[in-house]
């Protein structure tokens, strides 16, 4: 019961983050964002990253819960890889490559490969 409540709280944090970020991004900014807006978005992003990294990290009760967590993690990995890949491809075609997208894509795949190697040697 407590674990389900924690997941609900994390999803509410996600919705608040999306709403606030959308509000900041939809405001007309003739000369870019102000320092207060950048700091606010940065703080919201930190809260979001911490909250989302802890979703479902409680103690697993049964095999079904473990399978659900595995499935959610796999879908998140695939979605992140697709989004970063599309971003890299788009920026390659516009000749304006942001190396943070490329670095994020490399880190995601490198972490997956290293975790697979570690898992094979551990078990």
UniProtKB/TrEMBL annotation:
Entry keywords, A to Z: Membrane, Transmembrane, Transmembrane helix
Residue spans crossing the bilayer: 7-27, 33-55, 75-93, 99-118
Keyword Membrane annotated: yes
Superkingdom per UniProt: Bacteria
Name this protein carries in UniProt: DUF2178 domain-containing protein
Source organism of this protein record: Candidatus Doudnabacteria bacterium RIFCSPHIGHO2_01_FULL_41_86
């Amino acid at each position: 019961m407590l674990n389900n409540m924690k997941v609900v709280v994390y999803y509410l944090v996600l919705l608040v983050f999306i709403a606030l970020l959308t509000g900041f991004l939809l405001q007309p900014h003739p000369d870019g964002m102000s320092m207060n807006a950048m700091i606010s978005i940065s703080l919201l992003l930190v809260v979001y990253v911490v909250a989302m990294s802890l979703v479902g990290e409680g103690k697993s009760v049964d095999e079904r819960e473990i399978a659900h967590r595995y499935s959610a993690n796999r879908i998140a990995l695939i979605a992140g890889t697709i989004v970063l890949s599309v971003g890299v491809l788009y920026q390659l075609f516009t000749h304006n490559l942001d190396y943070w997208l490329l670095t994020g894509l490399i880190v995601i795949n490198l972490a997956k490969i290293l975790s697979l190697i570690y898992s094979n040697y551990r078990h």
